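Running low. Invent one:
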Amino acid sequence: MAAVLRRAVAQCFASSSSSSPATFGLRRFLQEQPAFRPAVPPDRFMPLADRIRDLGVGVAFPRINLDGLVPPAPAPAPAKREPDAALPAASLTVEEARKVLRATQMEAARARIRESGAGAVPYADFLRLCCDAAGPDAGPSVARALDESGSVIVLGKTVFLRPDMVVKAIENAIPVRHAAAAAAAEIDPAREEELRAMEAEKAEIDRAAAARVRRELWCGLTYLVIQTAGFMRLTFWELSWDVMEPICFYVTSMYFMAGYAFFLRTKKEPSFEGFFESRFAAKQKRVMRARGFDLRRYEELRRACGVAAPPLQARTPCASAGAARESGHCHSYCHCH
């Protein structure tokens, strides 16, 4: 730009020096230029448009770098990191973190208990061990959790730190399984055969006693039918209802008193089933005495052979009949095949 200005100034001075003084003064007032051209010397033109192009030939103007207006390329997305297996705590929830903390505290308490080496300690010492391992705030809850999980056994104010030793002591004091296994191994074949024979005889006695009781029940039903028919005859043919009404009332009261006396004597509910069980026990004892069945020997053989005594309800045919009827093998309430 400075070179262009120097060139224009040099041309101006050259033109002024070549002209005469007369013409110079005339040209000062009379300009040789068209009317449409501005009254500005050629070297005074503002370098606009074509003039800028003409004047700028050979001149390196600074150009606007349009490449800088292009938006920058988006930054590459960060690569997804694989979850580190060694740091799972970042994906834990609050509940899971609490669970892990509780498990850690319980394990620390178990370690303290193992280090103590004691078999049983007072509850205060046990609570102190838990507080030392998990802190004073979480100590009581950890002690309760150890008790509920079976890691220790709390009995009153004593805490057994070795439950396996307690189990062994109980097994030594009450050797149930060992005694049962030993009894099963020491069963005498002769006793077993005698027990089978007595069981068959007792089953026959039970059937005979049940048959006698059923006979009594049928007799009772016959008596009730005859009594009802006689009352109907007296009410509608021989006498009137005014006479039979108090008689029926007193007869019903007598039945109620008989049921009450039955309950006081047998301590059983005055029902048909209770009556059957009571009569069956009486008939069974009577038949056993008649046939010379040794009930005491029978119970000894059962204990020697390891056969458990049946429940009291299952000793009567009514209970057996009820179970058989539920399974579909019995067609009568008080009869079992």
